Amino acid sequence: MILQKMVIYFTILSFIGYIYECAAMTFWLGHWDNRGFLYGPIIPIYGAGALFTTVFFEYVLKDYTPLGVFLTGMIGTAILEYIVHYTMEKLFHNSWWDYSKSILNINGRVCLPASIGFGIGIMLIIYGINPYLLFILKRMNQRLLNSFAVLFTVLISLDVYYTVKNQRGYIGRMDRYTELFNARMNSLIGVHKAFNVFVYHIFEMIDKKDRSQM
Questions:
Q1: Where are the domains of the chain?
Q2: Environment class of 3 (CB within 10 Å of its CB; exposed 0-12, middle 13-18, buried 19+)
Q3: What separation in angstroms does the CA of 76 have from each of 42, 117, 150, 180, 186?
Q4: DSSP letter (8 states) at residue 111
């Protein structure tokens, strides 16, 4: 039962991490940026970091403080991020993030500002998300837990298989699907920007008209 809950928890937090990172980078760059290593809408490093810290604070160090959560999250995620970056770099001869231009970075794999951000993120998970998510998982019946755990395991396993296969030089249909998805997202962002400009001009015209009547 605990294993099923861990699988579901990992998947949900990986999805939340994907939403957060895509939204943050899209806002920063001004265009849609599909983040992550896998094809699906998850970033496993977020799920793994959240799962490890949750297990640590729920089952190992039950008496903890916000400062302890922050420091543990900051240091723990930095270690995890460095290991994942190094491993993926060696396996696929590629890197999915680069902190070399950030202050206080180590080989471009981790940096202090990002680690502080992850520490704050872990605090939000422990104090903001976990009380609700863990409560829901505890209330779910065994059949539902098994169904979701098996479904998520199969989907993630297939995603990892096709992603690794593609990274090793095989080109499949998933690349075309990803390019189409990214193009659609950029189109939506472009429409949103155009709508904002349109609304701005409407209000500007109304404002000018009001001023002329005064």
A1: 2-170, 171-214
A2: exposed
A3: 20, 12, 28, 36, 34
A4: E
Distance of CA 163 to the CA centre of its chain: 17
Rounded Cα distance, 169 and 32, in Å: 25
Give the integer Cα–Cα distance in Å for 176 and 71. Answer: 42
With contact defined as beta carbons under 8 Å apart, do 103 and 109 qualify? no
- Report the relative pairing of strands 105-106 and 110-111 from DSSP bridges: antiparallel
Tell me the backbone φ, ψ of residue 106, rounded to 5 degrees: -115, 105
Q: Are 142 and 8 in contact (CB under 8 A)?
A: no
Q: Is the pTM of this model over 0.90?
A: no
The tens-digit pLDDT sequence of the chain (214 residues) is: 688 999 999 999 999 988 888 887 777 667 666 667 788 888 888 898 899 888 888 878 777 889 989 998 899 889 988 998 888 888 777 776 788 888 889 988 899 988 998 899 999 999 999 999 999 999 999 999 999 999 999 999 998 888 877 765 544 444 555 555 555 555 555 544 544 544 444 445 545 545 555 5
Task: With H, G, I as helix, E, B as strand and everything else as coil, classify residue 93.
Answer: coil
